[in-house]
Design a protein that fits this description.
heterotrimer, A mainly alpha (310), B mainly alpha (324), C alpha+beta (585), B: 324 residues, mainly alpha, 12 helices, C: 585 residues, alpha+beta, D-Maltodextrin-Binding Protein, domain 2, Dipeptide-binding Protein, domain 1, Dipeptide-binding Protein, domain 3, 3 domains, seven-stranded mixed beta sheet, globular
Chain lengths: 310, 324, 585
């Protein structure tokens, strides 16, 4: 199973291959932005993600005003209803809960875990990577040693162990922490790599000789240059986390019913395959489309910042 | 030069493995405390008996003492015994590690062998429908949940053919037939589905990567020169471009070496593959501390070795890489 | 060693152990609809008649071939004194013949013993006359020495039985007085007090003394880990151990020296399968021949598989939920006071029970493969009584009862009394889909009457711990019982915190009756006592019985004479030697 860190690393290597960014900051950004805007697949992907995100945020509203169900309401006499059943546009599940409503709330959970995990990974990973890369020396050694340890634990083993720890109280937040506990390492390495390649450039030396403090150098010069790589990693990361959450649900960890997540809806539905194939198909499609969109967007960003590919 | 580098890396690796073991230990204890599988959950045993057994396992000591003892044993090569069946952890590992490696190595090889031609064809026919189709499939491939893919394949390849043709096309679980199997052909038949699922995600990424790598190489000066010299396109591609395009792929493959041990966990569970990943998962749920500790530490050690191997591989393949 | 194959009556250990090893436990025990009606015409005969795949064909028997059975978990040991899970029990039952055995309906039959002993006039002594033609697979005769040796591992003064730590020693310490062997083929067992469940629960298959004595003498504490327990070299049953491919399958081969005649089959394979869906799939593909416990959601689909025949029957088990009803429970004082309040607790418990539509649960969550449970005894029990309080689905009555008990609806719809909100957690173990779904249905049912229950599936090990820690509000689970109707392990006050009485239920009247009932050996008298026991328990409701899940077994059509039934599911399969496969493969 490929981790988000490894996907990001692959993306970075692809970028390196095509010639890493060596242009100065300003026009680079506007050029890249132009390229991004011209990439129709990428824009479509971004639209899909934004759409899903909005659905996720508006779940309570949609549930009250559009579907008129909430996600735990049961209508057990009408279980396994197919789509277009009266009152249930996309059908019902094994105890008669409305599938559409659960997909909407599931978006909140799946995307919530995705974004929160990535956010945590990036914040922690970037801080560590920046510090290690910039300050070097002992700090670098220690921090990277820590990163090595975290990356050495087989990912799924760690998920299982930490998952057991948080079992009784697995919420969106704790699950994100669990998955992020592994993800930040990859980001740290990525950022550190970027910092190392930029640190000794002329413009850096120049700025430093002008008396700029550490913080200023890090925030105004290093970070912006690391940003493209981060955006790509984040985008690919969200997709990876959504898949990881589904895998954890399959193993028995992750978010438990009645709270719906696309992952737990998909795994639960496997045994009801013969009663309603929709229960398998619909959450699967949601996962697939969202992860695909995240990946396409990530690729589009990378393409925009490293044009030699297309 | 290479040896010094290796030795230094190995020495640096030790604290990493220790760190892993410490984290695992702390986690297992935070979750289970002093729970002894099979003993603590038998409510008929008197408290005295349970305490005596806890003492025997050393679980009544403070956690850092327990960790110290465990570490001492590891240094002497004793990974301890399972708390559930008393078998040595090293025996458990030896029973299952070959199965996992068989699965992951096959999957990686499959992925490489498919990625290269797919990526090359895509690059050579850049912009055409073939390229678009292949690229779309690659991008789509990464978005499919692994367990779901496995379950679908089982249905398509085993269950449905069995109902219509009388027998499954391929077996749906295990590494060998439960009866009368064991020969290489039988093992191969069982390997195909799980390895395919595992390879699937790899090759989705690697084929795209090969494509861009190939494109990069094809636009290099030396390729243009070769063409200008009148060399046949085939020779240009296969003799010069391909070799150089593949090298960066090795970098990516190298990134996967550490995941050789645990990467197949989901596939192992879906297909009932008797590997280390699935075993660790089952034993973690059963609170078999010693086994989980041993397995995780062992896996971490392998990860570190894997990283080392990957580094060596790059160094060997690309002399431009310098060691720091 | 209860009649349902290796489990103490009322002890859910095997099922819990099963959960520990399988990710998804889809095995449910379900009650037979017809069994209920049948009890009015004399249950046992009926059960025997419909007990399993009794296609007893004596003609066209083919020799040779193998049968593969699918199991959700790996076996853990092949030693009867340690085993508690179904996979292990099934296998050791094939390898080790017992003194006694069971028919599918639960009646005991002789095996190594010549007849089923009748207790002597002192009500304490049982005399076993052993057959003289039974041999171990290495040619040594099985004698009373082996029986004595087996018991000495769990009781007596020969070995440190506490160090050996068989799961049976606490009970044997309490009930067994002595085991003596006056000659090579006689054994006399004596209990300390008259104990009715003795024959069905505590008569074990003998272990080979000549092989194991040296092992246990070397180290009693390490006996559990002896190689023999994982690869028996010498057996007495229909099959011998061939090999164990860890995490994959166990292969047994026919024992030519089996005293009842060599089995028709050459081999028997117990294959570990990932989960319930895989069991159904592999039955269809032919990768397994026997699915001993098919997931109810897949049962209808199994009917479409033309190579498989299905059998379902009532079994000795029930699904229930239990209350924390001890107001002094330090871990959960709030719910303890709600459910255990001396004045209103019972009314509350009754109210909640009335609010559950159990028929709907059986129809929808168990896909009609379960029956509404009406009493605390399972449908297979000879002691089952219908003369108990009934609790029809009546949400209005439930609401009224709660009002009566002083629980009035609060501003958010959840009932309040004296400033306390009627809110609690209901737990069950992860991995069992029917249970996980059931707690959600329960939560919704109670929401409608203003009671807030939060469904929380928890890790198996934590779930098991609640029986000792009692750190729970309400637990939902399933119990698999044996032939004996004794319920002491669940409801007697002496097992609070030590047995399954997590509820903290204490009724001196019930304790008395339970004690009396196991000391009376006359079945009709016992039946009367259990009728009263059921009345009390269905009145007090420390635990609420939900449904009786049916056993769902699917067997390949090429397998014949597979006489599986309620008490012939795992360890006890006396018909195994007659099983054959039509294609001889």
């Amino acid at each position: 199973m490929i981790s988000q860190g490894q996907i990001a690393e692959a993306a970075r290597l692809e970028g390196v291959l095509e010639g890493a960014a060596t242009r100065p900051a300003q026009s680079f950004w506007s050029e890249s932005w132009e390229r991004l805007r011209a990439n129709r697949a990428g824009l479509l992907a971004a639209a899909v993600i934004v759409f899903m995100g909005l659905v996720a945020l508006a779940a309570p509203l949609l549930s009250a005003l559009v579907t008129h169900h909430n996600f735990h309401e049961q209508d057990i006499q009408n279980n396994f209803a197919p789509p277009l059943f009266p009152g249930h546009v996309l059908g019902t599940d094994e105890i008669g809960r409305d599938t559409l409503t659960r997909l909407i709330w599931g978006a909140q959970v799946s995307l919530g875990v995705g974004f929160l995990t990535v956010a945590i990974s990036i914040v922690v990973g970037t801080s560590v990577g920046l510090s290690a890369g910039y300050f070097g020396g002992l700090a670098d050694d220690l921090l990277m040693r820590l990163v090595d340890v975290v990356l050495a634990i087989p990912r799924l083993f760690l998920f299982i162990l930490v998952g057991i720890l948080f079992f009784r109280s697995t919420t969106l937040v704790t699950l994100s922490l669990v998955i992020a506990s592994v993800g930040w390492g990859g980001t740290a390495r990525l950022v550190r790599g970027e910092v190392l390649s930029i640190r000794n450039r002329d413009f850096m030396l120049a700025t430093r000789s002008l008396g700029a403090g550490h913080l200023r150098l890090i925030l105004r010069h290093l970070l912006p240059n690391a940003l493209p790589v981060l955006i790509v990693a984040a985008s690919l990361g969200v997709g990876g986390v959504i898949l990881a959450e589904a895998a954890l649900d399959y193993l028995g960890f992750g978010i438990h019913p009645p709270t719906p997540s696309w992952g737990n809806m998909l795994s639960n539905a496997q045994q009801y395959f013969t009663h309603s194939i929709w229960l398998v198909f619909l959450p699967g499609v949601c996962i697939f489309v969202t992860v695909l969109a995240a990946n396409l967007f990530g690729n589009a960003v990378r393409d925009a910042f490293d044009p030699r590919l297309r | 030069m290479l040896w010094k580098y290796l030795v230094r890396r190995l020495v640096a690796a030790i604290p990493v493995v220790l760190g892993v073991s410490l984290i695992t230990f702390v986690l297992m204890h935070a979750t289970g405390g002093d729970y002894v599988p099979g003993i603590s959950d038998d409510p008929r045993l008197s408290k005295a008996t349970v305490d005596a057994l806890r003492h025997e396992y050393g679980l009544d000591q403070p956690w850092w003492v327990q960790y110290g003892l465990w570490l001492w044993n590891i240094i002497h090569g004793d990974f301890g015994r399972s708390m559930i069946d008393g078998t040595r952890v090293t025996v458990h590992i030896a029973d299952r590690l070959p199965n996992t490696l068989e699965l992951t190595v096959t999957a990686i090889l499959m992925a490489v062998l498919i990625s290269i031609p797919v990526g090359v064809v895509s690059a050579l026919r850049r912009g055409t429908r073939v390229d678009n189709a292949l690229t779309t499939m690659s991008v789509a491939g990464v978005a499919v949940p692994e367990f779901w893919l496995g379950l679908m394949l089982i249905l398509l390849v085993a269950v449905i053919p069995a109902q219509h043709l009388g027998a499954p096309l391929l077996p749906s679980s295990g590494a060998t037939s439960s009866f009368g199997g064991g020969d290489p052909l039988d093992r191969l038949a069982h390997l195909i589905l799980p390895a395919t699922v595992l390879a699937f995600t790899y090759l989705s990424i690697w084929s795209r990567f090969t494509r861009s790598s190939m494109l990069e190489v094809l636009s290099q000066d030396y390729v243009r020169t070769a063409r200008a010299k009148g060399m046949g396109e085939r020779r240009v591609v296969y003799q010069h471009a391909l070799r150089n395009a593949v090298i960066p792929l090795v970098t990516l493959v190298g990134l996967e070496l550490p995941g050789l041990v645990s990467g197949g966990l989901i596939v192992e569970v879906v297909f009932g593959w008797p590997g280390i990943g699935r075993f660790a998962y089952e034993r973690a749920l059963a609170f078999d501390y010693t086994t989980v500790m041993g397995l995780t530490t062992f896996a971490a050690a392998l990860v570190v070795v894997g990283n080392l191997l990957a580094d060596v591989l790059y160094a060997v393949l690309d002399p431009r890489i310098r060691y720091t | 060693m209860a009649a349902n194959d290796g489990r103490d009556p009322g002890f859910e250990q095997f099922e819990l152990f099963l959960d520990a090893w399988s990710r998804r436990d889809f095995i449910r025990r379900m009650g037979g609809a017809a069994a209920l009606a049948a009890f009015s015409i004399g249950g046992l005969e009926f059960l025997e008649a419909c007990g399993g795949n009794q296609t007893a064909q004596t003609q066209n028997v083919r020799k040779g071939g193998h049968v593969t059975e699918g199991s959700l978990s790996d076996p853990t040991t092949f030693d009867i004194i340690f085993s508690s899970d179904t996979a292990s029990n099934s296998l050791l039952g094939m390898m080790f013949a017992g003194l006694l055995d069971f028919r599918a309906d639960g009646t005991q039959i002789p095996m190594i013993a010549k007849e089923v002993p009748k207790v002597e006039s002192d009500q304490l002594t049982y005399r076993f006359n052993l057959r003289q033609d039974v041999k171990w697979s290495d040619g040594q005769p099985i004698t009373s020495d082996d029986v004595l040796f087996t018991y000495s591992l769990m009781a007596g003064s020969t070995y440190d039985y506490k160090a050996i730590n068989s799961r049976y020693w606490p009970d044997l310490e309490q009930y067994l007085d002595s085991v003596k062997a006056p000659d090579k083929y006689s054994v006399i067992m004596k209990t300390k007090v008259p104990y009715a469940p003795f024959l069905t629960n505590y008569v074990f298959a003998p272990l080979p003394k000549h092989v194991l004595e040296p092992v246990v003498q070397k180290s009693a504490a390490d006996f559990r880990k002896a190689d023999f327990n994982f690869a028996p070299t010498v057996v007495s049953g229909a099959f011998m151990f061939d090999r164990w491919d860890k995490s994959q399958q166990v292969v047994l081969k026919a024992n030519p020296g089996y005293f009842r005649g060599r089995p028709n089959l050459d081999s028997y394979v117990m294959k570990t399968v990932p989960d319930g869906v895989a069991i159904a799939n592999q039955l269809k593909t032919g990768e397994i021949d026997v699915g001993n416990g098919v997931e109810p959601s897949l049962w209808d689909d199994m009917a479409t598989a033309s190579n498989v025949s299905r059998t379902s029957f009532a079994q000795a088990g029930w699904d229930y939920y239990a209350y924390d009803m001890d107001p002094t429970n330090p871990k959960r004082p709030v719910t303890g006071k709600i459910f255990g309040d001396p004045a209103t607790g019972k009314t509350v418990r009754m109210a909640l029970y009335h609010a559950v539509d159990r028929q709907s649960l059986a129809d929808r969550v168990y896909f009609k493969q379960a029956d509404v449970a009406t009493t605390v005894e399972p449908p297979t029990s000879w002691a089952l009584s219908t003369n108990v309080t009934k609790y029809p689905y009546d949400p209005k009555k439930a609401a009224d009862l709660l009002d009566q008990a002083g629980w009035k609806p609060g501003p958010d719809g959840v009932r309040i009394k004296d400033g306390v909100r009627f809110s609690f957690e209901i737990i069950t173990n992860v991995g069992n889909k029917a249970r996980e779904t059931t707690i959600q249905v329960l939560a919704e049912s109670w929401k409608k009457i203003g009671v807030e229950a939060q469904p929380k599936p928890i890790q198996f090990t934590e779930y098991v711990k609640t029986s000792t820690t009692r750190d729970f509000d309400m637990v939902m689970g399933g119990i698999s019982a044996g032939v004996d109707p004794d319920l002491s392990q669940i409801y007697h006050s002496r097992v609070i915190g030590k047995g399954l009485n997590r509820m903290g239920y204490h009724s001196p009247q019930l304790d008395d009756m339970l004690d009396k009932a196991v000391q009376v050996l006359d079945q009709s008298k016992r039946k009367q006592i259990y009728a009263q026991v059921q009345q009390i328990l269905m009145d007090d409701l420390p635990a609420a019985m939900l449904v009786w899940p049916r056993a769902l077994v699917a067997v390949s059509k090429r397998v014949q004479n597979f006489g599986i039934g309620p008490f012939n599911r795992y360890q006890y399969r006396p018909w195994l030697k007659d099983v054959f496969v039509t294609d001889g493969k």
